[in-house]
Specification:
The chain is of the alpha+beta class and 696 residues long. It folds into 5 domains: 3-152, no CATH class; 160-237, no CATH class; 307-483 and 565-572, 3-Layer(aba) Sandwich (Alkaline Phosphatase, subunit A); 485-552, no CATH class; 577-679, Gamma-adaptin ear (GAE) domain (Immunoglobulin-like, Sandwich). 42% of the residues lie in helices and 17% in strands. It has 22 helices and 20 strands. It has a 6-stranded mixed beta sheet with strand order 2-11-5-1-4-3, sandwiched between helices. Strands 16-15-19-20 form a 4-stranded antiparallel beta sheet. Bound molecules: zinc ion. The site of zinc ion has 5 residues, from helix 18.
Length: 696
């Protein structure tokens, strides 16, 4: 035997001894913590896997005896998963969870190398040292171990897969809240209505930090109370959309806009609706403001992104030979555009393409942004007071002379009697409504829903009557969005130099001034007229600040995403087809019973972009996305870890798992539930023998 053989043999012996001691220690602690029912407390996939291996072993006639002990059939990673899962009974033995799990993982990798005869002798001393270190802990006599401090966990604990999901979707704060609440729940009896009511109140107050997993814990804890299920379901309903991921300063415009539209704005809308405040998300909004403020002067040179370039989209449709009905809606915030899109779909109109998102002219206010969008000019270029005259003239120079201005909602049904290439309808009702504060008796959102559905039905009539004359496109655009300010938001004094005009009084988000230098840069963005394409110098408050008094309804004029981003929609007569995406496995066959990598290929066969696509395999807590898939293309997801149960039914090398996808099409949320076909790599008996080799 040479030195290397000697080392390998020693490593092997140490490992065998260590595994034996580890199993003994785990069994002792499980018995100590849970009594003879301990098998019910270990992760159920581990239990099932051990039982299956034991049964097989016994059937094969390898004799009873020691083999009947369940833990002897747990492989190395299963032993580690038991320690992880039932940590409170192992805490006094091992001390630090992360350290012991890290050590076990290191030993596991060495062990695999050793079993497959590719262990480097140079690694042996490290492995021996690790085993000896843990051996010391494993052989502590039982008397030295204090009983677990808290009462043992309940019989049914949340399956591992849910915890994995939690880690994937939650940010650190939500996780900390989750841990904190778990400790609180462990101290509760779970039997008292009063206890449950207090908990519900607390959770409602902190609903932004709650997660589905946490609420399932709560359901389980209070399962003996008759009211528990209904109340937990109610809390689940109130859960927020996922918290936005942190934005990155170096992002390109497209990425910023997609982040704001798909992540930030839905979350912000939820915060407003539930009267919640989230300082982290406020901070994210601030980053967006800084980004937009810096980039805006450069954007003035391009027509694509700002609302003054809306005419280019309309001209493009006219050039294709379509009649266009252009509806310019004052204050169609992204909060409300899904309501309008839904209503248009219900009226048999269908999107010709996904929404484009445009940025308001600054300050994001009607007198500036609306006229600019209408005429296709920068505010500084607008000299004519006769807006309608200027509008017709602008289109005349673009080669479109037959323009008709629709004067009222009722006139829409009759517009086909006019021979025009372009129809314009300006709709102001939404802005008036938005500025009106909520009242005890009437809910603003309900009213907005009502007027938008009425508008959609009138637009549908107009489009259908125009369609009798030839092809037609409905283009809906806006000038600015809106936000709602909180009582706790910062109040600024009116600067002495501010001009006292009506728009300032209504919005309280910006001023016209002649003395930009006197404003401090912590509270104000300054907009010198020459750099910002304006007639006068303006200053806009940062964040959710307000000037002098807080507007009670929605307001605008600032730089937040919800004030500055607006949709541009292009619709045509027709019915939206049912959108079914196609999902396929894009990674090698999965081996059940252990963590494996999985990625998917997703195809979008439709002429509309799929946005904010999230794919969930709910049984396994696996989540992909959010993703965007351009029309008629396919894309691959990132890799995620999945662990199928060892006994999953397999036929012809495949199994099927549930898949749920949520996404947005043309700004409207949609979902799809289907089965995902997974290719399975099955284990052969020889491989099993190798895994649980003749160690002893
Ligand atoms: Zn307004």
């Amino acid at each position: 035997m040479n030195d290397n053989d000697e080392l390998l043999a020693q490593a092997f012996k140490t490992l065998v001894r260590f595994e034996k001691n580890l199993r003994r220690a785990i069994l002792a602690d499980l018995n100590r913590g849970y009594g003879p029912l301990w098998p019910k407390k270990i992760p159920s996939p581990t239990l099932e896997s051990c039982e299956a291996k034991r049964d097989k072993h016994l059937q094969a006639g390898w004799g009873p005896g020691r083999e009947s002990m369940l833990l002897d059939y747990a492989d190395f990673s299963e032993l580690a998963s038991i320690i992880d899962y039932c940590w409170n009974v192992f805490e006094c033995r091992f001390g630090n969870k992360q350290i012991v799990l890290g050590r076990l993982e290191e030993i596991r990798l060495f062990r695999n190398a050793l079993m497959h005869s590719n262990m480097r002798p140079a690694d042996c001393p490290r492995m021996i040292a690790l085993c000896e270190e843990l051996n010391g802990k494993c052989t502590l006599v039982l008397e030295e171990i204090r009983p677990p401090k808290e009462r043992p966990p309940r019989i049914k604990v949340v399956p591992e897969k849910m915890v994995q999901e939690e880690v994937l979707i939650a940010d650190e704060e939500a996780l900390a809240f989750f841990e904190q609440m778990k400790r609180v729940l462990d101290k509760m009896s779970g039997q008292l209505e009063g206890e449950f009511r207090a908990l519900k109140g607390y959770l409602l107050q902190h609903i932004a930090r709650c997660s589905p997993v946490l609420l399932e814990y709560v359901r389980d804890k209070f399962k003996e109370l008759p009211s528990a299920n209904a109340i937990v379901d109610e809390l689940l309903e109130a859960l927020p959309p996922p918290r936005p991921s942190p934005p990155q300063a170096q992002w390109r415009t497209k990425k910023w806009i997609s982040w704001a539209v798909n992540q930030y704005i839905p979350y912000k809308q939820w915060l407003i609706k539930h009267g919640q405040y989230d300082s982290v998300v406020e901070e994210q909004g601030r980053k967006y403001e800084e980004w937009l403020y810096k980039l805006y002067p450069k954007m003035l040179a391009q027509t694509g992104r700002l609302v003054f370039g809306t005419y280019t989209y309309i001209k493009r449709e006219i050039d294709k030979g379509h009649r266009v009905l252009w509806v310019l809606i004052d204050n169609l915030a992204c909060f409300w555009s899904p309501i309008l899109i839904r209503a248009l779909l219900d009226n048999d109109l269908t999107p010709s393409e996904g929404p484009v998102y445009q940025l308001a002219m600054l300050p994001s206010e009607t007198s500036i942004s609306h006229t600019s969008a209408l005429l296709g000019l920068l505010p500084s270029q607008i000299t004519n007071n006769d807006i309608i005259g200027a509008f017709k003239e602008a289109w005349h120079t673009r080669g479109v002379s037959n323009v008709h201005i629709v004067s009222s909602l009722d006139e829409l049904a009759e517009i086909s009697q006019y021979d025009a290439e372009l129809f314009l309808f300006v709709y102001n009702r939404l802005d008036h409504l938005a500025h009106t504060p909520d009242h005890q008796l009437d809910d603003r959102e309900e009213e907005i829903r009502f007027v938008l559905s009425k508008l959609a039905s009138k637009l549908s009539l107009a489009v259908k009557s125009l369609a009798e004359l030839g092809t037609v496109r409905l283009v809906i655009s806006s000038d600015h969005g809106a936000t709602k300010l909180y009582e706790k938001d910062k109040k600024l004094d009116v600067p002495a130099s501010a001009a006292e005009d009506e728009t300032y009084k209504e919005h309280r988000r910006f001023i016209r001034t002649t003395q930009l230098d006197s404003l401090n840069s912590c509270d104000w963005f300054t907009l010198p007229a020459d750099r910002f394409g304006l007639h006068d110098d303006y200053a806009i408050v940062k964040d959710a600040f307000f000037i002098s008094s807080r507007p009670l309804g929605y307001t605008h004029g600032g730089l937040t995403p919800e004030e500055t981003l607006v949709p541009l929609l292009i619709f045509e007569p027709g019915i939206l087809p049912r959108l079914d995406l196609h999902f396929e496995q894009n990674s090698p066959p999965v081996r059940p019973g252990r963590p494996q990598k999985l990625s998917l290929l997703v195809s979008n066969p439709f002429p509309l972009a799929i946005e904010g696509l999230e794919i969930v395999l709910p049984e396994y807590g696996v989540r992909f996305g959010p993703l965007t898939i351009e029309p008629k293309t396919e894309t691959t997801t990132g890799e995620r870890q999945i662990e199928l149960p060892p006994k999953i039914p397999v036929e012809g090398g495949v199994t099927y798992v549930d898949l749920t996808a949520i996404f947005k099409v043309a700004g409207v949320s949609s979902s799809q539930s289907t089965k995902l076909k997974l290719k399975i790599r099955q284990l052969y008996v020889s491989e099993i023998a190798e895994e649980f080799g003749d160690m002893f």
